[in-house]
Amino acid sequence: MSHSIHHVPGRLRVRSNAFRCRPAEVRAIRGRLFSMEGVTQVRFNQHAGSITVNYDPKRLTQRALLDVMKDLGCTEATPRANPALASKAGEMFGKALVGAVINKAVERSAFKLVSVFL
Predict the structure, then answer these.
(1) pLDDT digit of tens for each residue in the chain (118 aa)?
(2) Which residues are CB-neighbours of 13 under 8 A, at least 6 positions away?
(3) What is the CA 33 to chain-centroid distance, rounded?
């Protein structure tokens, strides 16, 4: 089953195509998650096919929530992407983009300066 996981401490969102076509199972998952000590809110978006869980990170972990979802058969218990790696890639892309913009601005300034002297 394809899925994506987005996590920040206190908020976990799992998106899966299976959530769109199995509303009875989603209700069971919502009930099980909401019954966990530390879960403050569980929202289901059928159109997006996602479940968002707000929780107290001092009482629960991302791993515990994903394990419950895995036990209920709605997802694998591992995120597909490493957030640190994604952050590093975004940082590198940002630096490259800024570098390209600065390079182009210097190139245009030099061209205008030369054209003034000619």
Answers:
(1) 457 788 889 999 988 877 777 777 788 888 888 899 999 999 988 888 888 999 999 999 988 888 888 877 665 544 445 555 566 767 777 777 777 778 887 788 777 777 777 7
(2) 5, 6, 7, 50, 51, 52, 53
(3) 19
pTM exceeds 0.70, yes or no: no
- Tokens 């199995």, residue located: 22
Nearest to 49 by CA among 12, 19, 90, 80: 19
Distance of alpha carbon 7 from alpha carbon 20, whole angstroms: 21
CATH architecture assignment, domain 3-71: 2-Layer Sandwich (3.30)
Q: How many DSSP H helices and E strands does the chain contain?
A: 4, 4
